[in-house]
Every structure is written in C-alpha cells, then in structure tokens.
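User: My collaborator sent over this chain with a note saying "see what the structure looks like." That's all I know about it. Can you take a look?
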Amino acid sequence: MSETGLPAGWEIRMSNSRQLPYYFNPSTNESRWEPPADTDSKKLTAYMAANHTARPTDSNSSGGSDKIRAAHLLIKHEGSRRPSSWKEQNITRTKEEALAILERHEETIRSGTASLATIATTESDCSSARKGGDLGYFGRGDMQKEFEEAAFALRPGDMSGVVETASGLHLIERYASSLPSFSLTWDD
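Assistant: Without extra context I'll predict from the sequence alone. Here is the result:
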C-alpha cells in the first residue's frame, strides 16, 4: 500500500473537466470517482488533505475565493422538505429512524471500517451519492445555513457529527480549503 492508502497499481489523477481528483489504474485503464476496494481510508483522507488542499501562496492575498470542498451522507425522513430520493420514491421513515441509521453509519466511518464516500455511494439520499457524496467546491451562501456553518467549521480531513437541515440529517466530511492552486503533471 502506498502513502496514498490506495491498493497497489492505483494512483490519484486530476480531472480536467471537473477539476477534481479521481482514481486511476494504468494497468487496467479503470478510472473511478470513488476509491477502489481495499483502500486505507484514513491514509487516503490524510494524503488528500495534505496534497489536494490549496495553500495560500501570498500571505497578503485577499483570499477572494472563500470556497471549500466537502462530501456528505444524507439520510432523509418523512419531515424532510422533499421526502424522496434517487433510491426511494416516498420516504416514510421517522426522524428518529433516520438518526439511528446515520449514527450507525457514523460509527462505521469513525471505526475505519468504511469511508463516508463508500457508504454515501449506496446509502445517501442525495444525488451526489454517485460521486461518493462529493459536493465539489462551494462558498458561503451556497448551502443551507446549518450545513454551511458545520462544513466551514471543519478542518480538511475532519468529519462532522450529525447535522440537521431542512433536507434531512447529514454527516459532512471536509476535503479542502479554497479552490486548488496547484498543477499536476503526469508522465506518459
């Protein structure tokens, strides 16, 4: 296993169209947004926070783009503003049932058994599930107030506790501060 936490043969590349990192295996030409099986999620989170987080290049810069990148796992309930999702047309679970589900997922993630991205892919009620819950970069005012406050309060690599919004209940993992200010080159 490499310093990235990825299994042998896998590497991290940057998408030109989305400006997001993705996972690529050159020997099989497989590419994917979510980490491959057998990834060490703690190592990967630490690597991504250290290597794919923008760092200010000028201490006097105005920091004009106060944007962060985060992912989330959303569990909706019957009281959510839109109680339906890509996987369930009519969500009838109670808020208490949704909380119990999300707390089980939180326990699994914190134990290192699975990553938020892995669980979000199949369990999140948000359409971002197909991207492992990745919401990309967003700034202040782009998200619901409770979500925004929780996400901006996290340090890169940290995960929130349960956050309640009108959409439902969330776990939020912050990936990066600011838009990327790095460039990557790849050997052909």
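A starting point for your reply to your collaborator: The chain has a mean pLDDT of 83.
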